[in-house]
Amino acid sequence: MKITKPQSSADGNFEKTIVPAGTHVARLYRIVDLGTHYNEKFDKSSRQLELSWEFPLLLHTFKEENGAQPLVVSKTVTRSLHEKSGLTKLLKSWGVDISEDTFEMSQLFDIPCLLAVSHNVVGDKTYVNVDSAVPIPAGMDAPAPIKDNLTVDLEEFDHSAYGELPEWMQEKIASTKEGKAALSLSSDSAVGEDELPV
User: Fold this and answer.
1) How many Å from the N-terminal Cα to the C-terminal Cα in the chain?
2) Which of 68, 90, 136, 178 has its CA 20 to 30 A from that of 38?
């Protein structure tokens, strides 16, 4: 998944276990293009990405048959490399070079970081926030990734990757103009392949 800078012009039904507040070693494992959504707070629509990290040193057994699995956290950002965007600020604090006009997001899978996490308690619910990412200190060994990497790009759509997303996320993507277009093209392609002569 590539993102180009703007040019100037005149998971399951189990008890929830959350990531502790603090700074932890993390690895990005999932990048999902959510399509364009309307934000009531800011009264505008924007293309969104969801970034998900795993914490290889923070393990929990959700289901006995799966063994210990890393805790995860996600952050939704605007799919933009504008200098004031949340994604740009995140990447710069992470120490990632985004000096070129186009940045390949999959590079982030190979760059572990220290992720700062905080909690926001509203009523009886605790929300986990990703505050910032910074580079791993020199000399510090980063643990190997546990989860497989996954990218869902609506401009280079892979239906099998889309199928690995939880149902609620598939529905969120499918409700957007970009998601509808990608799913329509994927469906047309599948029909065409079925009609090929043997």
Assistant:
1) 34
2) 90
